[in-house]
């Protein structure tokens, strides 16, 4: 009886370990998926390089302070801009699920710091869809304003200016907290004792996106215009590919 009970307990533990390993791998893959969908969203929303001089109504409007932002989506159709906003909003669950494998991999490096890191990213991710979607409304309002004559356009430009302010109010905290969260994850990994190699601490989206920005600012020809606004999400894809490969290898070794 005791042997049978022990055998059942061992079998249940093996099933639990297999289920946990599967969740970890699926979580890692979901990170890649959300990185891809959010990169597509960035390309659809802001993957343009418009000529400021081609929009004199915006250049001459005293209501629009950030004129570069006001024209960046001028070449996008309503359908394209909407798709760019919606693909990110509807795939945010993948971004949340990706945090599961990070927690499992870094908690051994200190549960308190790991919890703060993952919690910070959770809040930042929750703020991100609204910030991302705000670009759509700015783009549509500015497109509508330039089609009107001077007198009719003034109220629309005024509303666009309000939406630009709203965009910054939502975007700055979201991207700022995201950067803090990834910085904390990098520190936890670099301190050692996590299941990730320490070098992964230099490969989180924060340092990789900084590297991306440096490349784009020094040798802009290396980065296509369509990808210029997607640095953070491209960095996320690279990081999650690394963690996915690592998690699959680790679970394969554990199963052998």
Quaternary organization: single chain
Give Rg in angstroms: 22 Å
Q: What is the H/E order?
A: HHHHHHHHH
Distance between the termini: 29 Å
Q: Percent helix among the residues?
A: over 70%
- Compute the number of helices: 9
Strand content: under 5%
- Principal-axis shape equals elongated
Low-confidence spans:
5-16
Tally of structural domains: 1
What is the residue-mean pLDDT, rounded to a whole number? 89
Largest sheet: none
What class, by secondary structure content? mainly alpha
Total beta strand runs: 0
In summary, what is this structure?
With about 260 residues, the chain is mainly alpha-helical. It has helices at about 1-45, 55-60, 65-70, 80-90, 90-105, 110-145, 150-190, 205-220, 230-255.
Keywords:
elongated
What order do the helices and strands come in, and which of them pair?
Layout: H1 2-46, H2 56-59, H3 67-71, H4 78-90, H5 92-106, H6 111-146, H7 150-190, H8 205-218, H9 231-255
Helix pairs in contact: 1-4, 1-5, 1-9, 4-6, 5-6, 6-7, 8-9
């Amino acid at each position: 009886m005791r042997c049978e009970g022990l055998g059942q307990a061992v079998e249940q533990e093996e099933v639990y370990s297999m289920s946990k390993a599967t969740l970890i791998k699926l979580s890692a893959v979901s990170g890649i998926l959300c990185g891809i969908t959010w990169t597509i969203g960035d390309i659809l929303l802001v993957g343009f390089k418009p000529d400021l001089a081609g929009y004199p109504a915006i250049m001459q409007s005293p209501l629009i302070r950030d004129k570069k932002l006001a024209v960046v989506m001028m070449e996008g159709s309503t359908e394209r801009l909407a798709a760019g906003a919606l693909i990110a909003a509807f795939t945010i669950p993948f971004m949340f699920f990706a945090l599961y494998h990070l927690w499992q991999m870094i908690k051994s490096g200190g549960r308190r710091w790991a919890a703060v890191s993952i919690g910070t990213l959770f809040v930042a991710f929750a703020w991100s869809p609204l910030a991302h979607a705000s670009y759509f409304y700015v783009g549509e309002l500015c497109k509508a304003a330039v089609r009107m004559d001077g007198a009719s356009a003034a109220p629309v430009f005024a509303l666009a200016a309000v939406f630009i302010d709203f965009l910054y109010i939502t975007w700055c905290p979201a991207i700022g907290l995201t950067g803090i969260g990834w910085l904390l994850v990098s520190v936890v990994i670099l301190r050692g004792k996590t299941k990730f190699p320490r070098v992964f601490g230099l490969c989180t989206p924060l340092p990789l996106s900084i590297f991306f920005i440096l490349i784009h600012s020094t040798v802009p020809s290396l980065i296509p215009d369509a990808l210029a606004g997607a640095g953070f999400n491209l960095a996320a894809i690279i990081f999650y590919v690394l963690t996915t490969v690592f998690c699959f290898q680790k679970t394969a070794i554990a199963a052998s």
